[in-house]
Amino acid sequence: MATKSKGNSIMTAEEKGPDFEATLTELESVIKELEGEIKLERALVLFDHGMKLSQSCEEFLKTAEQKIELLKRAVNGSINVEKFEEDV
Questions:
Q1: Cβ-count burial of 31 within 10 angstroms (0-12 exposed, 13-18 middle, 19+ buried)?
Q2: 16-72 belongs to which CATH class?
């Protein structure tokens, strides 16, 4: 496990929080359970948890997008934004 040292920005997994893939997998599990026949009380708990997981994924993606934009910033300070086209 990595640790933070003086002058170094390496953080432990606990400091970074849960990773995106694990959160997304958990969200998929919640959705799958919600699609089945469950009691209303359980559905409300799952829905609340699912919304929190969804928000966490959204925040991660927004942060990732911001980091990508910074990396794409040109030397002169302008941003070269290119549309992402997915291969089909």
A1: middle
A2: mainly alpha
